[in-house]
Design goal:
about 80 residues; Alpha-D-Glucose-1,6-Bisphosphate, Chain A, domain 4; four-stranded antiparallel sheet; 2 helices; about 35% strand
Amino acid sequence: MLVWDPPRRVVLQWELDPDLPPTEVEIVFAPEGDDTRVDLAHTGWEFAGPDGVEARPRYSGQRGWELVLRRFAEAAGG
């Protein structure tokens, strides 16, 4: 964990592959009425070289972070 600032923010190293440098994931939580807004930024793909740039599309859309965050929301009762 790179940054732990509860309840607002967490920054993690995200390992795509053990042979590549890690990328970075920043998650920011903000109150939004009775709910919580979650913003996620996944950066550092360029540091993983061509393999990281090629892997990036796998983390977008229905099969990527959207799926992961939906599962977290379901587990939290949302």
